[in-house]
Design brief:
Layout: E1 2-5, E2 13-18, E3 24-30, H1 34-44, H2 49-56, H3 67-83, H4 85-92
Antiparallel strand pairs: 1-2, 2-3
Helix pairs in contact: 2-3, 3-4
C-alpha cells in the first residue's frame, strides 16, 4: 500500500496499490468530491500506470493541478522510487 500527500487540491491524500506488472490495483482518495473521485478510481483501477500518467497529467481544476493530475504525480513518484530504491531509503532517514 502506497500513500501520497496531495498538494493544492480538495483531496488531501491518495492511497493506492500497484502490482508487479505496473497495473494500478486499488486507489482511494481521501476527501475531495466523492462521486467524481469514485468515478476516477473505478476507471483507473486495472490500468497500466504509464497509461494513467499519460492520460491524467496536466488536467487542471484549480491552482494549476487537479485530483487526477495528483494521481499522475503519485504514480510518477512511485516509478521514481521503484527505479531508485536506494534514494528512497536515504530520504527516509
Amino acid at each position: 500500500m502506497e500513500s501520497y500527500r496531495t498538494q493544492k487540491t480538495c483531496c488531501r491524500q491518495i492511497i493506492y496499490e500497484v502490482d508487479e506488472n505496473d497495473v494500478l490495483t486499488s486507489v482511494k482518495f481521501i476527501n475531495g468530491c466523492s462521486g467524481n473521485l469514485q468515478g476516477i478510481a473505478k476507471l483507473a483501477v486495472g490500468q497500466n500506470i504509464d497509461y494513467l500518467i499519460e492520460k491524467l497529467s496536466g488536467i487542471i481544476c484549480r491552482e494549476r493541478t487537479s485530483c487526477p493530475d495528483q494521481l499522475a504525480k503519485a504514480l510518477l513518484d512511485y516509478k521514481e522510487r521503484k527505479a531508485h530504491p536506494e534514494e528512497s531509503r536515504k530520504n527516509d532517514r
